[in-house]
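Reopening this ticket.

The earlier resolution said the output was attached, but the attachment link was broken on my side. Pasting everything inline this time so it's all in one place.
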Amino acid sequence: ILYGKNIRIDREWGDPLSTFCRDFCYHILSSVKKGVVCKLAGNQTAKTVAQLVKPYVEELGLKLWDVRFVKEGASWYLRIYIDKEGGVTIDDCTDVSHAVDPVLDREDPISVSYYLEVCSPGLNRELKEPEHFTSFIGSEVLLTLYKAENGSKTLKGELVDYKDGPILKVGEEIKEFSLSAVAKATLCDLD
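Inline output:
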C-alpha cells in the first residue's frame, strides 16, 4: 500500500500474470467531498460520469468499456473500466486516473465521498452494450436470463451474432434472445 496526500493506492497481487491480466484495480481515494446524498442515482451517475470521462479516455488511446457507481458496505465506488487491444496495463489505469480526477473534481457529479477505481474489465468481462457483443462474436459467453428457458436460467454458447440481443449457438441449435430477457452476459475465460 502506497500513501500520498489525499491518495491511497492499493494493489493486490496473486499470481502476477493472471491477476494483472484479469481483474486488477488501481484504487484511489478521491478527495473527500462533503454531502450525504448523491446528486444522482447510481445508474444516472454512471451515465453522467461516462459522458464526462470518455473524451479523456479516448485521448489516451483507450476505450471506455463501462462505468459503475455502486455502494458496497459503507463505501461508494466509482469504477471506470477501460480496454485496449492487447490488454490494459497499470500505467494505463494510472494515466486515466490522473486525467479524469481533475475533471470529476471540477464537474463534481457526485456529492458523497467515493473511491475512484480505474480497472481492466477482465477476461470474464460483462457484456452490456451492443458494441460489447459485436466485439466478441465468435467467443463463448454465459447468459443469465430473467426467466428460465427449459428449466434453466443460465446458458453457455458461442456468440454468433447480435440483432437487438445476443444470438448464441448452443450445441447445434441457434438461440436468439432480446437484450431485455438477459439479466447478465459475461465472456467466458479465454484459456
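Reporter confirms the inline version is readable. The longest helix spans residues 42-59. The chain is about 25% helix and 35% strand.
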